[in-house]
TrEMBL record:
This is Peptide ABC transporter ATP-binding protein. InterPro entries: AAA+_ATPase, ABC_Ni/Peptide_Import, ABC_transporter-like_ATP-bd, ABC_transporter-like_CS, P-loop_NTPase. It is a peripheral membrane protein. Belongs to the ABC transporter superfamily. The keyword Zinc does not apply. It is found in: Cell membrane. Residues 3-250 form the ABC transporter domain.
Amino acid sequence: MILQFRNISVAYGDGGPSLTGFTLDVAAGEIVALVGESGSGKTTAIRTAIGLLPGGGEVVDGDILFNGKSLLTLSSKEWQALRGRQMSMIFQDSGAMLNPIRRIGSQFVEYIRAHQSVQKQEAWELGRVMLERMGLPHSETIMNSYTFQLSGGMRQRVGIAMAMVFQPRILLADEPTSALDVTTQSQIIRQMLELRGKYGTAILLVTHNLGVAAYMADRIIVMKDGRIVEQGTRESLLHQPAASYTRDLLEAVPSMRGERYV
Ligand SMILES: Nc1ncnc2c1ncn2[C@@H]1O[C@H](COP(=O)(O)OP(=O)(O)O)[C@@H](O)[C@H]1O
Ligand SMILES: [Mg+2]
């Protein structure tokens, strides 16, 4: 197992727990989707895994292991070695993380060299090749562009390319395609699946879109009010949902060409 949540509970400030008794194992190369309505604790769960809980969020119970080692006791130096290289994260709008007044290439080079001691030219080439793998054919042009010159889908591809450049063991993806139109969304999803196939990267995917989960995930976890309501393989969950809440979510999935996603 690459990532193991063991009975994790998280609270923000003095409030009650926002995530309660969360237990989940993610195997190497596996894609697991967390689905559920807004506020159900999906983001909290994956941010716990990368040690980046916002606003006073704290793990109040349980443990979380990466490669069998607890993440709760890592020093900041150990986190630095882990983040970006072995575990990385992408967000709904990766472009927002990029500096608008600097070219993509120089930021990509800087990012790579912050994690690995390589020459600038080599870093440039690593970055450029990764952009191509994310389906950006004019990679040299993109490297020389500013974020405002790119579409949302292109910016998101740049973000995923940066997250994947070191071929991490696991990618944490928080609504990675939610801000995009349906066509771009499905292209990016296919590219993420290709990257998983190529590098064996596990993906822990957060989405409120059960269609996306159905298309991408090996396993689906349904969350509500900070707890796991139901979980199972994609097939079992979609075809034999046990919880009425899961059935409600399924009802809300729009059908494509008269058929559901799966
Ligand atoms: N920065 C924060 N400060 C205080 N409470 C938060 C914060 N982020 C999340 N929460 C609490 O955690 C709950 C779950 O939020 P979140 O993990 O963002 O859910 P989701 O990603 O499923 O929409 C929220 O309902 C809220 O009560
Ligand atoms: Mg969220």
